Amino acid sequence: MAFPVNRQRRLRRTEALRSLVRETRLTPSGFVYPLFVCPGEAVRKEIRSMPGIFNFSVDEVVKEAHEVYSLGIPAIMLFGLPEVKDEMATGAWIDNGIVQRTARAIKAAVPNLLIMGDVCLCEYMSHGHCGIVKKVGGPTPETQYEIVNDVSLDLLAKTAVSQARAGIDIIAPSDMMDGRIDAIRAALDAHGFENTPIMSYAAKFASGFYGPFREAADSAPAFGDRRSYQMDPANAREAMREIELDVQEGADMIMVKPALPYLDVIAEARMRFDLPLAAYQVSGEFAMIKAAAQNGWIDHDRVMLESLLSIQRAGASIILTYFAKEAAKLIG
Ligand code: PBG
């Protein structure tokens, strides 16, 4: 019997054949577009390290939301740059905070666009950490300060409730404090938001790929780093434990972040958990592709779609990506 050496190649000869046998189809219906909102009016300030991505004032972000929705992208993720930062992250949880005001304005203008709210304290803290910080004065630089987990949970829960009250559809905690899903679920339920789902940034790694975001959201830590609460890039099994805890605490959707350097974690999470699985293609992944393309070293559109496809192939059905608009224009 002739060994069927040609069996694979037979189906690759034309685009019609390739399209017929394709296993993964990218559509904008799984995309989430992150948006950064800042104080002021008529502000549209491009982020230096993220070409095509802007800090928008509330009036401008409403226009952007219209465009996003008209491209077939079902959801946005809101990040806020507050007027003032302090040591209680007040701007995160007050009812007229920047994200809350934005959510109301977008809901009024584009009611069918799903709004996700990033729940974290770092953008609102004067020191840029994701929780309340206590000086403990240990003997080494890393032991000078501690993040106080349980007190931080109260502020995160307040943030989630105020976001839900402002009309945010999906609460997305990205802080990586322990027990936050439980605390947020309880607070939402207690305030009548038992139908508001939680998408947990369940496996969030302490990654160098967040660099451009910290410029966009002005949230780089003033001292130390986030390694005491975000995950060690070396650990995939621990990621499964982190996700498991969030599932037990009541997460409705789970997320792995970043995406491309952690495709193994996405694939393993897909096998182990049955909840909707999201992946966040973060700022550094975006910036890397933009920079190489600007230099003429790679083909922008091709690499953009290939990277998104690989994230979906690994098992994520929801992709948070700064490429959402550009990709939707190509494939939508
Ligand atoms: C807030 C948060 C970060 C990102 C999303 N939510 C930054 C961080 O943890 O430092 C990163 C997103 C990106 O890089 O695109 N904690």
What is the number of helical segments per DSSP (H or I, 4+ residues)?
Answer: 13
Beta content comes to 15-25%
Number of individual domains: 1
Instruction: List segments where confidence is low: pLDDT < 50 over at least 5 consecutive residues.
Output: none
What class, by secondary structure content? alpha/beta
The Cα radius of gyration reads 20 Å
Give the cofactors and ligands.
ligand PBG
Output the CATH class name: Alpha Beta
Mean pLDDT: 95
Fraction of residues in helix: 25-40%
The biggest beta sheet, please? 10 strands, mixed
CATH topology: TIM Barrel
Question: What features would you describe in this structure?
Answer:
The chain has 332 residues and is α/β, with parallel strands linked by helices. The protein has one domain: Aldolase class I (TIM Barrel), CATH 3.20.20. 39% of the residues lie in helices and 19% in strands. It is built from 13 helices and twelve strands. It has helices at 7-10, 15-20, 58-70, 90-93, 98-109, 149-165, 180-190, 211-216, 237-249, 263-272, 283-294, 300-314, 324-331, and strands spanning 31-37, 44-47, 50-56, 75-80, 114-119, 132-135, 145-148, 170-173, 199-204, 253-257, 277-281, 318-321. Strands 1, 2, 3, 4, 5, 8, 9, 10, 11 and 12 form a ten-stranded mixed β-sheet that branches. Strands 6-7 form a two-stranded antiparallel sheet. Strand 2 (44-47) and strand 3 (50-56) form a beta hairpin. Helix 3 packs across helix 5 (98-109), helix 9 packs across helix 10 (263-272) and helix 10 packs parallel to helix 12 (300-314). The radius of gyration is 20 Å and the shape is globular. The termini are far apart. The protein binds ligand PBG. The site of ligand PBG has 10 residues, from helix 8.
